[in-house]
């Protein structure tokens, strides 16, 4: 990720703590003020750095998650992993990172699902998927660039929904769910090869994306 400006750096410093405080205070300035107090930041500076509208606050929080993920997954850390495992570990890292903010995540998804916030929600989902693929080493520039990000957005979104209701120890049910969805993606990659090679019997990409977001099991 590009080097942040001082204001962006302060926003990222606040973001994860704002997510945790949003569990109690909602996506409001109260969560920003509480985070500033915890981190020893002047409240006026924190309010200047962090957006005021709930949807924009959520987008800033997601940006902070993306930044923390990029900082954690150095080239040395992921060099020995296969691409599928890189993606799996990145998604799992994001869940662990926001584990204390699950109720905030639930509220955030509801806010971003509002009609007036759908475009913002799609942009943040795309940016997170793009960040994961870039960290994983993806350099595709053809239509694969887009399908990979669409499928990962669907996988991550459905995994988030499973995780929000997972009461199993260590979220093992979510982990199994994630691995099944990633197995679906691997099958999809094989389908894409068939799609390129057979114009008549091409599988439906749209139908497949729908199954990732709303899986049968």
Summarize this structure briefly:
The chain is an all-alpha fold and 217 residues long. It is 75% helix and 0% strand. It is globular.
Write up this protein.
With 217 residues, the protein is mostly helical. The protein folds into two domains: 1-139, no CATH class; 141-217, no CATH class. It is 75% helix and 0% strand. The chain has eleven helices and no strands. The longest helix has 26 residues, at 172-197. The chain starts with 5 loop residues before the first helix and ends with a helix. The relative contact order is 0.10.
Query: How far apart, in Å, are the first and last alpha carbons?
Result: 35 Å
- Structural class computed from helices and strand pairing: mainly alpha
**Oligomeric state of the chains in view:** single chain
Number of domains: 2
Query: What is the C-alpha radius of gyration, as a whole number of Å?
Result: 18 Å
Highlighted features:
11 helices; globular; 2 domains; mainly alpha; 217 residues
How do the strands and helices of this protein lay out in sequence?
Elements: H1 6-25, H2 29-39, H3 43-49, H4 54-72, H5 75-78, H6 83-97, H7 102-112, H8 118-135, H9 143-164, H10 172-197, H11 205-213
Helix pairs in contact: 1-2, 1-3, 1-4, 1-7, 4-8, 8-9, 9-10, 9-11
């Amino acid at each position: 990720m590009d080097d942040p400006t001082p204001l962006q750096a302060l926003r990222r410093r606040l973001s994860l703590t704002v997510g945790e405080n949003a569990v109690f205070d909602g996506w409001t300035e109260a969560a920003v003020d509480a985070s500033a107090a915890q981190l020893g930041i002047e409240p006026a500076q924190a309010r200047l750095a962090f957006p005021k509208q709930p949807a924009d606050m959520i987008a800033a929080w997601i940006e902070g998650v993306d930044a923390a993920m990029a900082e954690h997954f150095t080239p040395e850390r992921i060099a020995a992993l296969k691409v599928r495992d890189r993606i799996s570990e990145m998604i799992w890292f994001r869940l662990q990172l926001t584990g204390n903010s699950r109720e905030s995540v639930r509220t955030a998804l509801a806010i971003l699902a509002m009609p007036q916030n759908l475009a913002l929600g799609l942009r943040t989902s795309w940016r997170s998927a793009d960040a994961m693929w870039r960290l994983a080493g993806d350099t595709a520039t053809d239509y694969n660039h887009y399908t990979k990000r669409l499928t990962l957005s669907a996988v991550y979104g459905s995994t988030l929904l499973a995780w929000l209701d997972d009461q199993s120890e260590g979220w093992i049910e979510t982990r199994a769910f994630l691995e099944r969805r990633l197995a679906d993606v691997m099958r999809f990659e094989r389908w894409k090869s068939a799609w390129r090679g057979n114009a008549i019997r091409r599988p439906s990409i749209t139908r497949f994306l729908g199954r990732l977001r709303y899986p049968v099991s």
